[in-house]
Design a protein that fits this description.
mainly alpha, Rossmann fold, 4 helices
Length: about 130
């Protein structure tokens, strides 16, 4: 935006597992700063493993970026991650880790809650080897 390449900063959307992410939880709880989770409460699965964390070293920066951009952060179940990874493979021909596909469901949640219309872009990382 400072260089005049875009009119506004894109809305930042965070996605993570229901079972353990301090950034998403802090956003959902309305905390001004990221609050670490208790390590004992973390539930790690084969699907959510890339997303699980009880602490984030740059959590405050991530939380602030989401808020400043009028973005959103949402929890995504393992089942939804698997579903959207399959849908991306089927419709787009790309194979991603289910955890990576969590971004698609978080965008869906954001659109439904904010009733935002138009085109949307999701950046997906974490390619699957299958």
């Amino acid at each position: 935006k400072k260089k005049g390449l875009i009119e506004r900063v894109p809305r930042m959307i965070g996605a993570s597992t229901v079972h353990g992410n301090p950034i998403v939880r802090s956003f959902k709880m309305g905390f001004r700063r990221m609050v670490p989770l208790s390590p004992e409460r973390i539930v790690e699965t084969d699907v959510n493993e890339p997303l699980v964390a009880y602490y984030s070293y740059e959590g405050d920066e991530a939380l602030n970026a989401i808020r400043r951009s009028k973005g959103y952060a949402g929890f995504v179940s393992d089942e939804k991650m698997i579903y959207y990874a399959g849908l991306l493979r089927k419709l787009e021909g790309i194979s991603v880790l289910p955890a990576s596909a969590s971004a698609v469901d978080a965008l869906r949640q954001f659109i439904l809650r904010r009733r935002i219309h138009g085109d949307h872009v999701v950046v997906i990382t974490g390619r699957s080897i299958i």
